[in-house]
Amino acid sequence: MAANDNLDVRTEVLARDYFHGFMGQVGEIARTLKAELEAHPAFKAGRVATGEAAPRTLEAFDRARGGMLRIDEAYPLAPPNARNDFGREAIDTLVKLMEDHRDEAVVISPEHADRAGAAPGMGNHWPAPGRRGRLEGMKVHERIDTRLREFIAAQPMFFVATAPSGPGGHVNMSPKGMAGTFVVLGDHRVAYLDYHGSGAETIAHLDDNGRITLMFCAFQGPPNIVRLHGRGRAVPVTEPEFAELLRLFPAPPDTHGVRSIIEVTVDRVSDSCGYAVPLMSYEGDRDLLLRSHGRRSDADLAEYRRVKNAVSIDGRPIFAP
Asked: How many angstroms separate the CA atoms of 90 and 83, rounded?
């Protein structure tokens, strides 16, 4: 993967000629994979560089399905402290493809296999020289690691899903947005600000059984979907603990209209491809909700909860007197 602005994706040589050409460079990696790779009649080697990073990286990988993708110079594509977004996007796209299709293609870095891990994001996905490598699936993660934290922080919206206990009742899903309203508090702990709204199904369901799923989708850049499954609780604005939790949000918008804070203990972290999620441009946050609640006093908001949020759509009490 060379750090330049032109992308050249091309089909290269048959397996025997290919190995003859670079065997001395990759050393033990070539010898370790040689028997498996020569079982194929031919291999496709795409030289992936920069430019139209995500779609062209996908194109290179697609051509390599059933064979091998050769990556030259992965390290300089995104060296430490690099600010080239195309390099980061190319690596993120490639890593995701490696995770989702690890049984469909072999990916090697001939010239710099011994330091591929130096490129941010590559270290956990690359076999060291002389060691037979199988990509570790990252569909289910042990925790919310740095990469996932960065992905979550970059998304301008997320979705919340809950459901009542038992076979009856209504499953609820709500979109959430506004910068500064979601925070990762630990490897297995997150929280978000719940503003006053016409429904309060999430609060009702959490009071019932605590089950909750949060979903983040990439609408720009490399495709990805992250889901956080766990158990949540609602801390209403009327509770003493509310002020303490609110201090954990470093840069929230106007909090006057916040109804509760939803805190989630995450017991399952997963991601998936998101290939069918559309590409959409983010223009900015709406300020309608903040302006609407800004015209209401604390007493007005209390009355709003009493009237609008007394019970759930299934009749479960929420803010009933």
From this structure: 13
CB crowding 245-259: b at 16 or more within 10 Å, else e: bbeebeebbebebbb
Q: What is the mean pLDDT of residues 118-122?
A: 45
Stretch (H or E) spanning 194: strand 189-195
Specify the pTM: 0.65
Which residues, listed in sequence order, are joined to residue 268 by a DSSP beta bridge? 229
Token reading at 289: 């909700």
Domains and CATH numbers, the chain: 15-132 (no CATH), 146-308 (2.30.110.10)
Residue 91 and residue 119 in contact, taking contact as beta carbons nearer than 8 Å: yes
The 8-class DSSP code of residue 311 comes to B
Dist CA 167 CA 238 (whole Å):
32
Q: What is the pLDDT of residues 126-137, one digit of tens each?
A: 444 443 333 333
Distance CA 194, CA 239 (A): 14
